[in-house]
Amino acid sequence: GPVTIACLGALATLFVLGVFVRHNATPVVKASGRELCYILLGGVFLCYCMTFVFIAKPSTVVCTLRRLGLGTAFSVCYSALLTKTNRIARIFGGAREGAQRPRFISPASQVAICLALISGQLLIVAAWLVVEAPGTGKETAPERREVVTLRCNHRDASMLGSLAYNVLLIALCTLYAFKTRKCPENFNEAKFIGFTMYTTCIIWLAFLPIFYVTSSDYRVQTTTMCVSVSLSGSVVLGCLFAPKLHIILFQPQKNVVSHRAPTSRFSSAATRASSSLAQGSGSQFVPTVCNGREVVDSTTSSL
């Protein structure tokens, strides 16, 4: 059931976190953007924890945690992913003749951008808690009036409305993931983020109508919510972190710094000349190609 999925997912998240911490100084972890990866894993862990909040007996505290935790867990995940894809898009979008190094791509800047995006969801939830105070209410089914259900007093429309900000984050992240799908930066991370977002869109498109259709059955609706939230976290683990874990644990020979030509990170005009020079010296230089454009890029040093 949902509890089993959440427990297994939480354990898997902790395992991934442990592997990343142990191999923190390796190229795969460095090139992934360690700071954002840890934030992302925190968001995935929160997604699994939300199952236990939704199955708990409704109370003022539980209802508050439901409102606060659901949107926040999603915003942590998708803010980190949006920051990652935006960074890749700006790096390769600016890789042209005479282009300067894009601003705000350092680890500290990336974390600040991510936290700013998360704060947007927190402000929305805070406003929701003020406008519609959390609490509980009793509900009886029309066909079975002898059955009384204790549930939180928020409306389904309000719950889904609080997720509108996350829908925006998902849409933007999917757009950037599509634009950078051919950019092999960070061990093809852009491609794996694309897989993550495409699958996430499918899950959300299926979840929203099911959530409304099952509104008359509280248990079914709660189960649907728990499974959907856990699936969203599992998609991130499976599509984004599993390939990195496979390299770290089973293909350590790939977990090395690639040999690149010693040119400027954002200069593309001298790429062919650098390639010829590298071939003459026996170096294993292969120019990075993104959307048909050759770009010289050393990714691990800046993340």
Automatic annotation (TrEMBL):
The chain crosses the membrane at residues 6-24, 36-55, 67-83, 104-131, 159-178, 190-212, 218-242. One of its GO terms (cellular component) is plasma membrane. Pfam families: 7tm_3. It is found in: Cell membrane. GO terms for molecular function: G protein-coupled receptor activity. It comes from the Eukaryota. Keywords: Cell membrane, G-protein coupled receptor, Glycoprotein, Membrane, Receptor, Transducer, Transmembrane, Transmembrane helix. InterPro entries: GPCR_3, GPCR_3_C, GPCR_3_CS, mGluR. PANTHER family: METABOTROPIC GLUTAMATE RECEPTOR. This is Glutamate receptor, metabotropic 2.
